[in-house]
Design goal:
Structural class: mainly alpha
Number of strands: 2
Strand content: under 5%
Helix content: 55-70%
Length: 356
């Protein structure tokens, strides 16, 4: 049955149009596209069912090349890059299209994963609070940590870390603010208590005169009011940051292989393929974390270790040096790239939360 559906969706060779007048530039021609402006003859003012049918046809016509590319990318390090510069490009999906696809899937899964973990933390109840006043944010977080399980504790710590919240500086700026936990008990889960905390911070903001402290207070209020938006914004900014990291990584490769006198474009395509593989690895990790609650540390460790092995193998195959030189250059490139990556990541997160 599936084969019949697939066969029906396969497109028949289109019949060439004759004596067509282009609706865009009024050029008369024969064929499917205007030779003057390139506009297609096809009329897109069609019922949605027709558009959907053609979309499925395009999808099934494309999947063989697409999945062939994914398979080669995963199991044959460096192969796709060599094929690309051998001129065998039509049989595989373009490198940048693959990167766009895997990055979209990865950050979609990350959004789902972080939202689920964040909701687990925000919906947790704080039941064992001391009735005395809590005077600092880290005391509040400590009380919260004692009331949630270890998995949610890690997620809360990760949220604070990725959001760039410095508890020490927060305490210094809010040392005069008394947070009475008794007033939070009726607020429900942690989400309600964060809203109550935001209300207290807004009261503090009304009397604060120091511009720097006012800016910090606004930052903390925004995080308390909408932590989901803060995390979503951070992920969005990070996804865009990788479009900057691709050419930077290629530049590092260019410097590492400067004696090879290879064009920058070769390093850029290699960079795209390496990042695409890394994204696929993280797609698998995040997908398994969403599907299974069991202990996956060992499997995740194996997947993470596959990245340097893949990278070294790809460098050996594409650049053609002996293994010792490849390993030395791998560590050099990795060291420099980690510095660049960390710098871009920190700047991206700080920009996402409005610090810079």
């Amino acid at each position: 049955m599936w084969s019949k559906i697939k066969n029906r969706l396969k497109r028949k060779p289109p019949v060439a149009h004759e004596n067509v007048v282009c609706k865009n530039c009024e050029t008369t021609f024969t064929g499917h596209y205007c030779p003057n402006c390139g506009q297609s003859v096809n009329d897109y003012d069609k019922p949605f069912s027709f558009i959907f049918y053609n979309f499925l046809g395009d999808f099934f016509a494309f999947d063989t090349r697409f999945f062939r590319t994914l398979l080669a990318l995963i199991i044959r390090p460096g192969f796709l890059t060599k094929e690309y510069f051998r001129g065998r490009r039509v049989r595989y999906a373009p490198p940048f299209r693959i990167f766009i696809f895997v990055s979209f899937v990865l950050f979609l899964l990350l959004q789902i994963y972080t939202n689920r973990g964040l909701n687990n933390v925000l919906d947790s109840e704080i039941t064992a609070m001391d009735s005395s006043s809590v005077k600092s944010l880290d005391e509040l977080v400590g009380q919260v940590n004692s009331n949630i399980d270890s998995t949610d504790k890690v997620e809360l710590d990760s949220l604070l870390a990725i959001s760039g919240v410095n508890l020490d500086s927060a305490n210094a700026g809010l040392s005069n603010l008394q947070l009475n936990i008794d007033s939070f008990r009726d607020a429900g889960g942690l989400r309600g208590q964060l809203n109550s905390l935001a209300d207290s911070l807004e009261m503090k903001l009304e009397t604060e005169t120091d511009p720097k402290q006012r800016m910090k207070l606004r930052e903390y209020i925004g995080l308390c009011r909408s932590p989901e938006n803060a995390v979503a914004k951070i992920l969005e900014y990070i996804s865009w940051a990788f479009f900057l990291l691709l050419p930077l990584f290629a530049l590092i490769l260019k410097l590492a292989y400067i004696r090879r006198n290879k064009r920058y474009m070769r390093h850029l395509v290699f960079s795209i393929h390496i990042h695409s593989f890394i994204f696929i690895v993280f797609i698998i990790i995040v997908a398994l974390s969403l599907l299974f609650d069991s202990n996956l540390q060992n499997f995740v460790l194996i997947l993470l270790l596959s990245v340097p092995v893949y990278f070294i193998t790809a460098m050996k195959k594409f650049y053609g040096q002996n293994i010792l030189k490849v390993i030395v250059k791998f560590f050099t490139v990795s060291f420099l790239y980690n510095i660049v990556f960390t710098t871009v990541l920190v700047l991206t997160v700080l920009n996402a939360i409005g610090v810079i």
